[in-house]
Design a protein that fits this description.
Blueprint lengths: L6 E13 L7 H4 L3 E8 L10 E2 L2 E3 L10 H4 L17 E2 L5 E2 L11 H17 L4 E3 L17 H10 L3 H9 L1 E3 L5 E7 L10 E10 L12 E7 L1 H9 L7 H10 L5 H10 L6 E3 L2 E4 L4 E4 L17 E2 L4 H7 L4 E7 L2 E6 L21
Parallel strand pairs: 1-6, 1-10, 5-12, 9-12, 13-15
Antiparallel strand pairs: 1-2, 1-4, 2-3, 2-11, 7-8, 9-10, 13-14, 14-16, 16-17
Helix pairs in contact: 6-7
Length: 362
């Protein structure tokens, strides 16, 4: 991102979850009965090169366009569009400035625009279309729409001009299935270096009836896999994939749910709660780093740390030995993270259990 260092570009990402048709025999595979879609970014990417991420991207003006009104209204119209609107994410950090909202006077609220963004970006990167035909009620678990016969041509158009996504939906007689996306979390990119890209990313969960076909664009994403949360963190530990701290944290949070049904029910139960917006604060130690999260005793809600890291002339083990209230990700090395949390979650959400790594890796 260019421009003001105290601005985060709006973005959305999607955790697509689908039941395993044939659970594997290994303990890792049996830990959860569902899988999530991870896409591998290209090494030339300007943000998180080579990382395995959930599909998603930056909010565009087209996601807020009034052209969506006739597409969505056969299902639900303004002002709520059939969603439980919770307003802006609950703030946990002062003076966070966001870039200007596209279409500031649009009747399309943020909660709709961010979901359209997540669905559009998922289509661009994976070819998966989360659409709902006109006259069809949203099913309990979402279904992916069959891709158009000229998928590559449509995807190229949408990537070149995001306004083409509404044209595609109109052509197919469908609306983006925004009702299948449940709010999950909201992460702000922490300070890494002056001028580094920073995003305000809303994470959504979408539970699917069956696994859709995945067609990579081979531009933004060059590889993909459907993988359980336990398998993903194990592959990370053995350096087969790389996960950025937010993705790692979310994978460990999802380990709390053994079944797709449990995950879906949990999302429905907290549908009106909304999400906190978290800005991790990086604490540099003599032998590593930590990302401190809200509620941790070392977390500083001070505008000074919007543009700098904390540092301390002590080793990680010494700091960990003295603390009482933890909510932190310890970055021991590129492929070894641990999670320490002993505070109570808010707004009916759930935190990961403490995670120190797999014994076979340590």
């Amino acid at each position: 991102m260019q421009g003001s260092l105290r601005q985060w570009r709006r973005a959305a990402t999607l955790l697509l979850a689908v039941g395993r048709a044939h659970p594997g025999p290994s303990p890792a595979a049996a830990a959860e009965d569902y899988e999530l879609l991870l896409l591998q970014r290209t090494q030339s990417s300007g943000f998180l090169p080579g990382a395995h991420v959930f599909p998603g991207g930056v909010l565009e003006a087209a996601d807020c366009s009034t052209d969506w009104l006739p597409v969505l209204q056969p299902h639900h119209g303004p002002p709520t569009f059939g969603l439980h609107l919770t307003g802006h994410p609950r703030e946990t950090y002062p003076e966070v400035a966001l870039g200007p909202r596209p279409y500031p006077l649009s009747p399309i609220p943020d909660e709709v625009a961010f979901r359209i963004c997540a669905i559009r970006e998922t289509f661009e990167e994976s070819g998966i279309l989360l659409l709902l035909p006109a006259g069809v009620q949203a099913p309990r678990l979402a279904r992916a729409h069959a891709p158009p016969a000229d998928l590559d041509a449509w995807r190229a158009r949408v990537q070149e001009d995001p306004t083409q996504f509404v044209q595609l939906c109109q052509r197919l007689g469908c609306a983006p299935n925004i009702w299948a996306l449940k709010e999950w979390s909201n992460w702000l990119t922490p300070f890494v270096r002056k001028g580094g890209r920073r995003f305000d990313t809303r994470f959504y969960v979408c539970c699917l009836q069956s696994k859709p076909h995945t067609f990579l664009d081979m531009q933004e994403a060059i590889n993909y896999e459907w993988i359980t949360p336990t398998e993903a963190t194990k592959k990370f530990a053995f350096e087969e994939i790389w996960l950025a701290p937010p993705q790692f944290y979310e994978m460990r949070r999802l380990v709390n749910f053994a079944s797709l049904s449990d995950l879906h029910g949990f999302c429905l139960d907290r549908i009106s709660e909304g999400c906190e917006r978290w800005l991790p604060i990086t604490l540099l130690t003599l032998d590593g780093a930590m990302q401190l999260l809200p509620g941790d005793e070392l977390y500083h809600e001070d505008k000074e740390f919007l543009e700098k890291n904390l540092s301390i002339s002590k080793k990680t083990e010494e700091i960990m030995g003295k603390g009482r209230n933890f909510h932190r990700i310890v970055l021991h090395s590129r492929y070894l993270y641990s999670i320490h949390v002993n505070i109570q979650p808010k707004y009916k959400h759930i935190y990961p259990e403490n995670f120190l790594g797999f014994k076979s890796h340590l």
